[in-house]
């Protein structure tokens, strides 16, 4: 069983948390990652900053720019990942970002570097299944899950294309839009998750616009995982050097809500 | 519109493949939310290409609204002026394709007419676009006014400032201009913001991309709409002097005017082609020459040459010409560069300013700063070519919008 499948095999839905690597500095990221784990995060998405984050809203755009302004390099991100793996042997780590920084040295280089760093999965925002050969074969050969995104615009005819080659989990982007702005209505999330789960055995995590414990709990009732990103990035922006404690407390509130939600369901 | 080409296996005009690849370049690198829409657009474009009514409407608007065909003009005094400083027997004849005489003052309108017709075929009711110099924004605002569709233009805040006349034009035409303050506040950032709008409004919004770049099928359809330039020029050359030019020259930002001129000539083996990138302050300093100073990468939906660092972070471009101030280039140019069919060079800000003034004084034509880069390259090449040889350059825009920038560069207070 991989670290990712173990994370989704627990009694409660997985809490999937995103932060941008190197925000506000590369040196600050390890303590923030530790705070995510301490607060109860089940999966860590480590964002690779990019100059042109086209799918991201203002919060994560700003985090990307802060990180790059602090001088974050790909080598720093891989070091952060490798050190995380040494400190947290069980918590799955997923690199998330855009195609260009991932493919600039070649897919094989990236897959080998990610494998060496103990990375479990990769989410690439702008490589759709149609361009899979850009990254997919190299990652699979290295035993790294390629996590695919499904969206409200992914219709039934297209869904098999998206699921073909997907592993780890499916990330359902619940809003047609950019990160961090609005949340989808619960009924549309429920309908979409049901549609996805009918088509695949891979766990389905839902993200975009989830900020409060109540929202997380509502999604946890129907999905295998709840993804929270911009709200954590906002805390990092707000608290700077003191971010770890704020992040830990916030993650704990989400983790408790998710666990309680599933227990209500079972009861 | 051209009739579908009869292609030989060795044709340079057979690209892209059905997945939008020009050799290793091009493709569809977009977020999943956009992917179904991009596939829809591809289907809609194939259907439109097969529909004679679409071609008829496009041709009619180009003739009666845009003012096509644009003239083909022999620049006699420029030719003579360059011969004065050329070695004996040298000094090629210089001809211009006068796309600056189009309605709205540049080639951009050709593409906007085609795309808004496609948008309406697809039932889209809202138009967005990015703009650098403002020419594409003005052209988009123009066709939106013509067809009564609401229009939002994303423009880098820096460009809003240096292209104030075009901002006012867009507003007069009823468009909403949204200044973009992320990144370097220029064209690349405007394109990021337009893509963010698009992804949030896929149900009703059509994104009119201004250059031959972006996810497939944009590079192909923009090229096809702009190919009216080369198709006309080729026929005009044959009818005027019964021969084809020896060299085609065009400026390149994203490269839509250049591909529009070049594409219909690609299989004419004796016609050489020269694309001119913006060398800004110089290729060893800040510039916008993606082929000369960049490497292949993925941005804005396609794989192409980009200005970037070793980690794949996009670096800022610089050109005095806002329309060339982009760190990438259309994927078909990357392919034509890689196979050597088209030669690419560059001209600096200073060379473009010199060429700008040269054309003003010798021909009574104030060119935009974008084609001024092409004219700079023409001036160099003409002196090296024989007098009976012919250069055809694309005068893709007029310079009214640039007079403030030029005045500032020349130290003139207005």
From TrEMBL, chain A:
The protein's role, per its UniProt record: The alpha subunit is responsible for the aldol cleavage of indoleglycerol phosphate to indole and glyceraldehyde 3-phosphate.
Name this protein carries in UniProt: Tryptophan synthase alpha chain
Catalytic activity, EC: 4.2.1.20
InterPro entries listed in its UniProt record: Aldolase_TIM, RibuloseP-bd_barrel, Trp_synthase_alpha_AS, Trp_synthase_suA
Reactions the enzyme catalyzes: (1S,2R)-1-C-(indol-3-yl)glycerol 3-phosphate + L-serine = D-glyceraldehyde 3-phosphate + L-tryptophan + H2O
PROSITE patterns: TRP_SYNTHASE_ALPHA (PS00167)
Complexes and interactors: Tetramer of two alpha and two beta chains.
Family: Belongs to the TrpA family.
Membrane spanning residue stretches: none
Keywords assigned by UniProt, alphabetized: Amino-acid biosynthesis, Aromatic amino acid biosynthesis, Lyase, Tryptophan biosynthesis
Residues annotated as the enzyme's active site: 45, 56
PANTHER family on file: TRYPTOPHAN SYNTHASE ALPHA CHAIN, CHLOROPLASTIC, TRYPTOPHAN SYNTHASE, ALPHA CHAIN
CDD domains reported in the protein's UniProt record: Tryptophan_synthase_alpha
GO MF terms, alphabetically ordered: tryptophan synthase activity
EC category name: lyase
Organism, scientific name: Sphingomonas hylomeconis
Pathway(s) served: Amino-acid biosynthesis; L-tryptophan biosynthesis; L-tryptophan from chorismate: step 5/5
Superkingdom per UniProt: Bacteria
From TrEMBL, chain B:
Enzyme Commission number(s) of this protein: 4.2.1.20
List of residues that carry N6-(pyridoxal phosphate)lysine: 108
Catalytic activity annotation: (1S,2R)-1-C-(indol-3-yl)glycerol 3-phosphate + L-serine = D-glyceraldehyde 3-phosphate + L-tryptophan + H2O
Pathway(s) it belongs to: Amino-acid biosynthesis; L-tryptophan biosynthesis; L-tryptophan from chorismate: step 5/5
One Pfam family matching this protein: PALP
Cofactor: pyridoxal 5'-phosphate
GO-annotated molecular function: tryptophan synthase activity
Keywords: Amino-acid biosynthesis, Aromatic amino acid biosynthesis, Lyase, Pyridoxal phosphate, Tryptophan biosynthesis
Keyword Amino-acid biosynthesis attached: yes
Family listed: Belongs to the TrpB family.
Assembly notes: Tetramer of two alpha and two beta chains.
Stored HAMAP family: Trp_synth_beta (MF_00133)
Entry protein name: Tryptophan synthase beta chain
């Amino acid at each position: 069983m991989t670290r990712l499948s173990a994370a989704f095999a627990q009694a409660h839905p997985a809490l999937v948390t995103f932060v941008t690597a190197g925000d506000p500095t590369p040196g600050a990221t390890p303590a923030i990652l530790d705070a995510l784990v301490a607060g109860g995060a089940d999966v860590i998405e480590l964002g690779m900053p990019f100059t042109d984050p086209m799918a991201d809203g203002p919060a994560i755009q700003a985090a990307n720019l802060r990180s790059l302004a602090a001088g974050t390099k790909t080598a720093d991100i891989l070091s952060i990942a490798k050190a995380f793996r040494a400190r947290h042997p069980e918590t799955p780590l997923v690199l998330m970002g855009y195609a260009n920084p991932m493919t600039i040295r070649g897919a094989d280089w990236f897959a080998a570097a990610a494998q060496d760093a103990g990375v479990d999965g990769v989410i690439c925002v702008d490589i759709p299944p149609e361009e899979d050969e850009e990254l997919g074969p190299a990652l699979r050969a290295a035993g790294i899950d390629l996590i695919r995104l499904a969206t409200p615009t992914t219709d039934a005819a297209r869904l098999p294309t998206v699921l073909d080659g997907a592993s780890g989990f499916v990330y359902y982007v619940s809003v047609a839009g950019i990160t961090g702005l609005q949340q989808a209505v619960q009924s549309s999330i429920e309908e979409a998750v049901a549609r996805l789960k009918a088509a695949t055995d891979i766990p389905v995590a839902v993200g975009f616009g989830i900020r409060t414990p109540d929202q997380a709990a509502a999604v946890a009732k129907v999905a295998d995982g709840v993804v929270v990103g911009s709200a954590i990035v906002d805390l990092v922006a707000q608290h700077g050097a003191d971010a770890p404690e704020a992040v830990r407390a916030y993650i704990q509130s989400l983790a408790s809500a998710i666990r309680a939600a599933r227990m209500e369901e079972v009861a | 519109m051209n009739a579908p080409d009869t292609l030989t296996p060795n044709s340079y005009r057979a690209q892209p493949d059905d997945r939008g690849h020009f050799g290793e370049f091009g493709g569809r690198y977009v977020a999943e939310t956009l992917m179904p829409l991009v596939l829809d657009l591809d289907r809609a474009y194939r259907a439109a290409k097969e529909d004679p009514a679409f071609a008829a409407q496009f041709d009619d608007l180009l003739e009666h609204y845009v003012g096509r065909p644009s003239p083909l003009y022999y620049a006699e005094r420029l030719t003579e002026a360059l011969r004065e400083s050329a070695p004996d027997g040298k000094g090629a004849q210089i001809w211009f394709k006068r796309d600056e005489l189009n309605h709205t003052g540049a080639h951009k309108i050709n593409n906007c007419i085609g795309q808004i017709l496609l948008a309406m075929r697809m039932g889209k009711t809202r138009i967005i676009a990015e703009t650098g110099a403002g020419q594409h924004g003005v052209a988009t605002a123009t066709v939106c006014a013509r067809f009564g569709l609401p229009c939002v233009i994303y423009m880098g805040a820096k460009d809003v400032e240096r292209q104030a006349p075009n901002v006012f034009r867009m507003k007069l035409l009823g468009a909403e201009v949204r200044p973009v303050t992320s990144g370097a506040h220029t064209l690349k950032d405007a394109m990021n913001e337009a893509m963010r709008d698009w992804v949030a409004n896929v149900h009703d919004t059509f994104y009119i991309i201004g250059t031959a770049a972006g996810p497939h099928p944009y590079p192909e359809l923009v090229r096809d709409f702009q190919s009216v330039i080369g198709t006309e020029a080729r026929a005009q050359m044959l009818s005027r002097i019964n021969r084809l030019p020896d060299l085609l020259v065009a400026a390149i930002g994203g490269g839509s005017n250049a591909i529009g001129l070049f594409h219909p000539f690609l299989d004419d083996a004796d016609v050489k082609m020269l694309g001119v990138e913006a060398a800004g302050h110089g290729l060893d300093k800040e510039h916008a020459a993606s082929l000369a100073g960049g490497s292949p990468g993925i941005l804005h939906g396609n794989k192409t040459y980009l200005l970037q660092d070793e980690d794949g972070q996009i670096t800022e471009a610089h050109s005095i010409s806002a329309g060339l101030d982009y760190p990438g280039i259309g994927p078909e140019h990357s392919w034509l560069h890689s196979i050597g069919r088209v030669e690419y060079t560059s001209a600096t800000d200073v060379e473009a300013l010199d060429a700008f003034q040269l054309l003003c004084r010798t021909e009574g034509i104030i060119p935009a700063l974008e084609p001024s880069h092409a004219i700079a390259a023409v001036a160099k090449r003409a002196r090296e070519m024989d007098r009976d040889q012919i250069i055809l350059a694309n005068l893709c825009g007029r310079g009214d919008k640039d007079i403030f920038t030029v005045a500032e560069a020349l130290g003139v207070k207005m």
